[in-house]
Amino acid sequence: MRFLLVLFSLFVILLGCENPPTTVLNEGIWRAKLTTLDNQALPFNFKLKKGTQGYFMEIYNAREVVLVDEILIRGDSIKIKMPVFEGYINAQFNDSLINGFFIKESLDRKVPFSASFGDSTRFLVKEDPSVNISGIWETIFSADTEEEYMAKGIFTQQGRMVSGTFRTNTGDYRYLEGNIKGDSLLLSTFDGAHAFLFKAKVTDSTLNGYFYSDNHFKEPFYSFRNEGFELPDEASLTFMNEGYEEISFSFPDVNNKIVSLKDPQFKNKVILIQVMGTWCPNCLDETKFLTEYVHKNPFDDFEVVALAFEYAKTEESAINAINRLVERIGVNYPILLAQFGSSSKVKANEKLPMLNHVISYPTTIFIDKKGKVRKIHTGFNGPATGEKYEEFKKEFNSYIMELRSEI
Question: Same fold for the domain at 23-117 and the one at 250-405?
């Protein structure tokens, strides 16, 4: 009898293992929140859907929609892997709540994350705005410090809603979305790599506040209206050191084949060198642009080659990051591993000593058919900058055509 009871108990246990209780996530709109320094809430919205391959989500930042299609669920645990980038969300959930962390292992960062179902608000705003900030704003970040830099705020406001971005000499701060609450500006973005929060007090002519990045960085900024403000020319910031006219390097591709500009594939061609990292959102914008450009313009006398400076801790993980970028975006030009273990711009400059400095990822180097460096473009202002991006695309094509026409 005792033996039969034991067998029955084992049968019940096995039956329970075969049919574990499952929790179903609600499909529809969710409000997510990351916790930054000073315990500030960085909100964003996403929509969760279920297809034939499982769950997927769309993250919304103003006009940007980030598709996330790598979601793994086991019991009440969920892992949401960000597209292209290494970051992921690890959390526990029920049908209408998710709680966990946004994690970037290579940087040893964990940012508290939570989400609630059925809430389409971004910031919780009930107070009407006391000002309209639409227009151009001359901006100083980290004023009166060694880290001081300029930016151009570009914003559009409709009622309480605000969208726009900050352009800098090294790129833009993505698609920002938020509100004016009385005399307070609230803006955020989350694109799977960076989480940005801007909070400021506003008047008709000034913005005064703080910029938060994840839960590891905070800096002050100050803005004032200036419709005629422009940043320095992106082609004037990085240049060749005296005595140099050519770029030279020898770096391995993902198959460990050493590639150099002396290789036959680059002879008598216009060459564009992209100094970048797979972890960098502005680099991703440029990579998408270059991939599309090469696809639409398969010129025999034009080559693109990227030099990846990766903070991944091992060579294997750096190569995996490059392969993931190539696979997800369809990159149609070689990406070489220039460095792993650090994305330091100082170390990048050591690898490219012919440049006066590397101050931005990406940095784009234009080389003519004779191998001479003709222009170096610092940073990349992508689709979030609107008209600036459209102007860039026309100027880029015009310059490539000019270089190609030379004998």
Answer: no
Architecture of domain 250-405: 3-Layer(aba) Sandwich (3.40)
Residues 334 and 253 sit within 8 Å (Cβ to Cβ)? yes
Domain boundaries, the chain: 23-117, 135-225, 250-405
Cβ neighbours for 166, distance < 8 A, ≥ 6 positions apart: 139, 151, 152, 153, 154, 172, 173, 176, 198
pLDDT at position 2: 54
- pLDDT at residue 151 is higher than 50: yes
Label residue 404 left, alpha or beta by phi (over 0 means left) and psi (-120 to 50 means alpha). alpha
In angstroms, rounded to a whole number, what is the distance separating the alpha carbons of residues 190 and 203?
27
Q: Which of 66, 22, 18, 59 is nearest to 42 (CA)?
A: 59
Question: Quick one: fold of 135-225?
Answer: Lipocalin (2.40.128)
- Rounded to whole angstroms, the Cα distance separating 74 from 50 reads 15
- The CATH topology of domain 23-117 is Lipocalin (2.40.128)
Cα(47)–Cα(271) distance, rounded to whole angstroms? 41
**Alpha-carbon gap, residue 96 to 116, rounded angstroms:** 6
The alpha carbon dihedral of 388, 390, 391, 392 has a sign of: positive
Three-class HEC string of 119-183: CCCCCCCCCCCCCCCCEEEEEEECCCCCCCEEEEEEEEEECCEEEEEEEECCEECCCEEEEEECC
Tell me the chain's radius of gyration from C-alpha atoms.
24
Q: What is the pLDDT of residues 214-242, one digit of tens each?
A: 999 999 999 999 999 999 999 999 999 99
